[in-house]
Amino acid sequence: MHYYIYDSFLKAKKYQRMMGRIEARLTELGMKGKVARISLLRNIRDAVREAARSDATTIIAVGSDETLSEVLNALPDFSTVLGFIPIPPDSYFGDLLGIPPQEFACDILANRIIHQLDVGQVGERYFLSGVELQKQPDEIECDHAFRIRPMRNYQNVFVYNMAPAALGSRGTVSPCDGRLAAVVTDQPPFWRQIFGLEPKNPSIISARHVSIKDAGTIPMRVDHGIILRGPTAIMLTAKKIKMIVGKERQF
Amino acid sequence: MFKTQTGGDTTGVQGRENAETIIGPSVKVEGDFSGEGNVIVEGVVMGSLTTQQNLSVAETAKITADVEAQNAFIAGEINGNLTIHEKLDIAATARVHGDIQAKILSITPGAILNGRCSVVAEVKSHPKHAKEELVLELKK
């Protein structure tokens, strides 16, 4: 059974027509299921718990990247298949997973290409894409075996599980290989940022366990959303999530 | 690790598009680095460096470590012993201070080499790594 979790922002009048189109397409494809609408009285955690109780085989997050991230973090275990209907046309996860926005995502759900994806963990938080450090750390320890030390000031540090063209490399970081990628880049000059050019000479180091070490506190942005504070360890969880992806996925 | 896309090389080092690990010119790696895929070094490495695939050492790189790889292309500075299981290619800009063991060796005129060279039919792992493999086998 499919269980759809609609984010609270979809109640707005401007989304009503689009939601109608999505529901009509789901009916055409024979994929109607239970719907849980997030509101002040029902958060995503409650909705996911209800879905688990109702023996849902597929939970589908309908909303933005944050909605998918919150649903992932609310799952009691990763036995259920997870789907995503991105609503914003520029969804980051939508692009990575090859899922087009709005009603076009319904066909991807119907095709049901399921991949087992690695899930990262930072503190108590799970992530699919990666962690962006908002400040350069003193040291990054990988696999308890070696340490990376940035030799210049103002370098950007990312730890990716899944990412498009990894900041100047010639490829993407795959979430199916059981490894994270620690990426260190020079902060590009403003004119490169204006023209959206990739930073030069990035370092990309593959590891299973990454430990961020610093004398102070480091804010870390997880999956382009929530900000946590470190230093802390970033690792892959032992379990994988079964996710519905499109043919145009970037891995 | 990386799904490749087509594109030109910008570093002058071979195989950047297929690299699993790139140690860029602005970082220093300390400790026992062990990779499974192709590795490119453009920065500083201290400790030990092992990969099961190919290693490219750029002109800007400075490695103070024992190195082990399947194939290697060296254009930078290495202070340590090299154990290469297949082909070792030393460019004119390379500065190697240490013993070399390889199956096939190619040295371009101009390279600086200070150490013993052994070109053998079968290259055995570096003693340290061989010891680790033996311990693993015994544990099994």
If you had to describe this structure to a student in words, what would you say it looks like?
- The model of chain A has no long low-confidence stretch (mean pLDDT 88).
- Chain A has helices at 16-28, 44-53, 65-74, 92-97, 105-111, 190-194, and strands spanning 2-6, 34-37, 58-63, 81-86, 113-122, 125-127, 130-133, 139-142, 146-150, 155-160, 171-173, 180-186, 203-207, 209-213, 218-222, 227-230, 233-245.
- Helices cover 20% and strands 38% of the residues of chain A.
- In chain A, strands 1, 2, 3, 4, 5, 6, 8, 9, 14 and 17 form a 10-stranded mixed beta sheet that branches.
- Chain A is built from 6 helices and 17 strands.
- Chain B is mainly β and 140 residues long.
- In chain B, strands 2, 3, 4, 5, 6, 7, 8, 9, 10, 11, 12, 13 and 14 form a 13-stranded parallel beta sheet that branches.
- The chains are: A alpha+beta (251), B mainly beta (140).
Q: Can you tag this structure with a few keywords?
A:
heterodimer; A: 251 residues; alpha+beta; ten-stranded mixed beta sheet; six-stranded antiparallel beta sheet; 6 helices; B: 140 residues; 13-stranded parallel beta sheet; 14 strands; 53% strand
